[in-house]
């Protein structure tokens, strides 16, 4: 299940090429394509490589699997990462759909994002990272909304996540498992021996709920 790459640069090139192929296919078939990105360290080099690829970015919509309930000015904002590392050069022509909104709560922001994300589904390409606690998106062990977020029969695509879990332990907005499964293709990007061990030998964590399903095609890309 796990595809091994010698280093971060090789993995980034492979992930960017795979994403570009999927996006081109979406553009050819439907005239538009969607890319759901992720935050963290692993996707940043992928974004650097992908933004240089020549495709019709003006017909691509980009959003996120999750974000902190923080404005883009925060260094912890996933939107900031995507805007600074992906939506540059050729990819600056893409449309970005934010999960964050200047609302009183992450739940209110999720209510705004819900119909917008549903309108984009099914997504052509989904990038996911994974935390050392086995979380994907902001479906984090210990969160009071994790169980609802992982319910494959749940009625929500986007949920608010209260503060107190994750690093940093701030409030968040997250796609649910049903939303993640609305992907035509998904890449899980992981790095280091500890994360590989979680994927290969762990069980019962959010990442396993995603990897053990049969609805969305998933590849796991790993580098030491």
UniProtKB/TrEMBL annotation:
Pathway annotation from the record: Carbohydrate degradation; pentose phosphate pathway; D-ribulose 5-phosphate from D-glucose 6-phosphate (oxidative stage): step 2/3
EC number of the protein: 3.1.1.31
Domain Glucosamine/galactosamine-6-phosphate isomerase positions: 7-204
InterPro entries: 6-phosphogluconolactonase_DevB (IPR005900), 6PGL (IPR039104), Glc/Gal-6P_isomerase (IPR006148), NagB/RpiA_transferase-like (IPR037171)
UniProt entry keywords in alphabetical sequence: Hydrolase
Pfam families: Glucosamine_iso
Catalytic activity: 6-phospho-D-glucono-1,5-lactone + H2O = 6-phospho-D-gluconate + H(+)
Source taxon at top rank: Bacteria
First-level EC class: hydrolase
GO molecular function, one term: 6-phosphogluconolactonase activity
Functional summary from the UniProt entry: Hydrolysis of 6-phosphogluconolactone to 6-phosphogluconate.
Family, similarity comment: Belongs to the glucosamine/galactosamine-6-phosphate isomerase family. 6-phosphogluconolactonase subfamily.
The protein, known as: 6-phosphogluconolactonase
Name of the gene this protein is made from: pgl
């Amino acid at each position: 299940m796990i595809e091994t790459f010698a280093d971060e640069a090789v993995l980034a090139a492979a992930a960017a090429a795979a994403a570009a192929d999927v996006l081109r296919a979406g553009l050819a078939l439907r005239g538009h394509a969607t890319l759901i990105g992720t935050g963290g360290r692993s996707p940043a080099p992928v974004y650097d490589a992908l933004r240089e690829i020549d495709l019709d970015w003006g017909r691509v919509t980009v959003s996120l699997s999750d974000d902190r309930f923080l404005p883009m000015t925060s260094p912890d904002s996933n939107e900031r990462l995507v805007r600074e590392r992906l939506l540059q050069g050729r990819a600056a022509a893409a449309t970005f759909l934010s999960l964050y909104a200047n609302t009183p709560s992450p739940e209110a922001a999720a209510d705004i994002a819900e119909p917008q994300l549903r309108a984009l589904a099914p997504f052509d390409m989904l990038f996911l990272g994974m935390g050392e606690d086995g979380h994907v998106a902001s479906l984090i062990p210990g969160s009071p909304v994790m169980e609802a977020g992982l319910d494959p029969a749940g009625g929500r695509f986007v949920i608010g996540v209260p503060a107190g879990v994750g690093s940093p332990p701030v409030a968040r907005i997250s796609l649910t498992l049903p939303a993640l499964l609305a992907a035509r293709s998904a890449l899980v990007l992981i790095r280091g021996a500890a994360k590989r061990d979680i994927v290969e030998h762990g069980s019962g964590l959010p990442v396993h709920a995603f990897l053990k399903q049969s609805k969305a095609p998933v590849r796991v890309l790993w580098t030491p």
